[in-house]
Amino acid sequence: MIPFWIIAAVLVISALWTVTARKPIYSVVSLLLNFAALATSYLILHAEFLAVMQIIVYSGAILMLFVFVIALLNSGIAPIVLGRDRVPVAPAAAAALSAIAFVATAIAAVHAPAIVPIATHSPLGAVGRGNVFGSIGDFGQALFLSRLLPFEITALILMVAVVGVVLLAGDLAPYVPTRRRAEQTRRALREAILREGK
Amino acid sequence: MATSFAGVPIFDYEALASVLFFIGLAGAVARRNPLVMLMSIELMFNAANLAFIVFARAWLNNAGQIFAFLVITVAAAEAAIALAIVVIVFRSAPQVDVDDVRVLHG
Q1: Is the ipTM of this complex over 0.90?
Q2: So where are chain B's domains?
């Protein structure tokens, strides 16, 4: 009971700090705190593998990417100037409407008749034990036996993302000895890509 | 069906997830810095993940955890591509403001 409220307070405060911080790097730090608290709550909820994934993928990979980009954008000659914050009317109205719709749905869901859940056969046990609900073995068995297609789709999504990022940000020109020829090759490649895009 | 675990009702967890989601939504709407907007979107992803995992625990069904796994993957792909676009668009601009990006209009 008490751990939940501590984690909830940390989550809400760090989320608010993320959204309101003046400098993006402070947002990254508070987001790191948020992810750590989330990983703790995943452990409480018997999602051991996802707790570890949360730390490795989110805190290790995604936040590191954010730090890299902040450093890259700040490394120019002039320091970057942040745009002024303002609340655009249409998205704000849409957000408010979705909040109202969410609350209405939640109230309706509380009063709806109960749905009979389809439980897996793994029993509930202490976190860290094997062969209980949410253990690594249980999760891996579900991932590789009964839910193989989502796992394969994950691989496809990552592949598409890698190809897209290389196309967007990568330097596609092959190595050529002189600078003039390199420029020519690069221009020809860029034109070819633009032609292909149409 | 377990509607409460370790003394905490499932409704409290869901309320926490929705509060986190709407904090992220407010950030994505009100902030104009693309990096902070992306981080707000990550907050929303994580709120959805929390809801998935809470329901997986409540129903003792792994499907919610598998779906959260899928969401983490999509979030990673989204962050990589969005940050590549941010780097391309704002590499030479002194001001980082999404409203100044007119070149991405269709």
Answers
A1: no
A2: 9-98
